[in-house]
Write a structure and sequence with these properties.
Elements: H1 3-25, E1 38-42, E2 45-50, E3 53-58, E4 71-75, E5 78-82, E6 101-105, H2 115-131, E7 135-139, E8 150-152, E9 172-174, H3 178-190, H4 193-196, E10 201-205, H5 211-214, H6 221-226, H7 233-244, E11 245-247, H8 249-259, H9 261-266, E12 289-293, H10 303-306, H11 310-319, E13 327-331, H12 335-345, H13 366-383, E14 387-390, H14 394-402, E15 409-413, E16 416-419
Amino acid sequence: MSKVSLSMFLVTIATIVYVLSRCVTTHNYSAMIHPSDTYEEKHGSLYVRQSGYFQSIIRSELNITRIVHSEVWHTRNELFVYPEDAPTSTGETSKKIKPIFLVYYCNSNARCSNWGESQEGLTFVYSLSRLVDRHFKMIMPNPCNLSQYFTPNKVPWAPLKGELTPPTENNTIDTTTDQGKRDFIANIQAGDFNVKYRHDTVYIRANRDLQDTIFGDTFYAKRIQDWKVTMNARIRFHLAWHELMRPSTEMISSLKHILGESFLIRKGLLPPSENPRRDSMYDVADSQLVCAHVPKPLHTEEENVQTVDIKALHNFMSSKGQLGSSHFFIATDDRNIFVQSKHFFQNHLIDYGAKTLHKYYLQNSMSACDRLTDVVTDQMILSLCDVLIVSHSLVGRLAYFMSNITQSVFLIDNGHIKSLNT
């Protein structure tokens, strides 16, 4: 072969290699795919299993279309996204896609307040992340690590080492103050969140659900209108919470010790077993569990709103079950209510030894951690009840939102008990 022919041959080979490399590596997939991710190619697309989610990355010289925050699977030639009415990607165009994050940030310096307010804040930030196409992460180390109660379910909210840019004054939004909330609402109503907040990582401190406040007239109004699930507070919280959280091994073990394995199997928290253990404190099993949440009023002026005559409550609860076979549970930080309830229901009242102070605030102390453990355990039990009576307290109301109860839910309102199913 002559030198000219050899040169032409080498040029041809180099051209082929270049073209193939352009087809395969035009985009920097390493910016999106973590080493632990698995991926496969189907129908001209790369499907990446990324920390519990599939992303459809459409290969193109011009753009990459991403479907983020959705569980995607491929059947024949159809693409399904769960949930079906969730906001879709804005279809941003970029040669290199670098992950951007929205972080619920609650540390000892933040005004995250009590557990119910923290739950509202974090589910709001998660819903916002869906709306603005950012990956959701959560940092809540105080008063104790949240992972001892819950682990990620469908959303990989636990940050990986080195994944997030540290919080600064410029990339942190604080909605826990009146002025901070006003500024945030004004900014998000003014236009594209990701144009206003251009940081790769944006942190939000939140202790309330601001969705009804900001989602009425915003840059994202059309997407919100299409995503009808956001219009119902209970469904909105229920879906968000269960996409984010599943009880940890420690929490399941604690609930099993209190309520029994058979009961958790009936509620779907444990798989079926031919020989469930019966060494729990209370073997609820198939008997009805009737519950009430009766916290002390947060303020003295709420006395008439939050309380109910304790005898009337006992009689109402017993009318919804059977004193001889049903089990009863009252979550309260009022010692007098607990003592009277113990006397009325006797051995059928579930008492696992909690010393709950529902008005706990986030502090970096062991006592605050113990109180949070009691609050979370109380709420988990309330969410599993067959009949539930709640007050206007967030902990009880969100227990109802977490639950699958469609009937037999009641509200203590102005000293009276009324149905929430009418």
